[in-house]
Amino acid sequence: MSSERVSHEFPPVFDENSKVLILGSIPSPKSREQGFYYMHPQNRFWKMLCNVLGEDIPADTDGRRKLCLSHGIALWDVLESCDISGASDSSIKNAVPNDLDRIFRTADIRAVFTTGKTAHKLYQRFFEGNGHEAVCLPSTSPANRTITEEAMLTEYRRIGEYLNK
Q1: CB-CB contact of 37 with 90 (8 Å)
Q2: For the stretch 87-99, what's the b/e string if a residue is b when 16 or more beta carbons lie within 10 angstroms of its beta carbon?
Q3: Which of 26, 51, 82, 135 lies 20 to 30 angstroms, CA to CA, from 118?
Q4: DSSP letter assigned to residue 106
């Protein structure tokens, strides 16, 4: 599969009450198609997050946006644009970061989480020394089958620790 230039096509989810920032790398083709985060039907992000929050998975993107905001969660991606083959994070080249300061200036972010090793490496590359160290959570991508859902949920519960502070 050849790579294509991809730009982030939808805004971050955040407001002045956001306490936790969760970052992916860049939206997958399915997410870009639907205009929101983690929208591949086999991606486990919403299942993990809603389990942590004790909520049902909202049926639509507006409900998912409201869910995040009502719990103090900001959601975005490390990258504004890159060259990528399909949804393969390992193929990312020519990465350009998002302006995360937009969120840090507006909200009192107490913790930053990345969803996967690539997002974490990119965050470290572009934002190291910004005063917000990131915690790397397992990727919820359908391609990541190296971790059980139970083990993944244990890691995602770390988000709740910061929401309750």
Answers
A1: no
A2: bebeebeebebbe
A3: 51
A4: H
Find the length of the chain. Answer: 165
Domain 4-163: state its class. alpha beta
Integer-rounded Cα Rg, in Å, for the chain is 15
What are the structural domain ranges in the chain?
Answer: 4-163
For residue range 19-54, list pLDDT tens digits in order.
Answer: 999 999 998 888 989 999 999 889 999 999 999 999
Indicate if the alpha-carbon torsion angle 146, 151, 34, 127 is positive or negative.
negative
pLDDT digit string, tens, across residues 136-157: 999 998 777 788 999 999 999 9
List 43, 94, 144, 164, catalytic entry: 43
In this prediction, residues 78-102 reach a mean pLDDT of 90
Annotated catalytic residue 43: yes
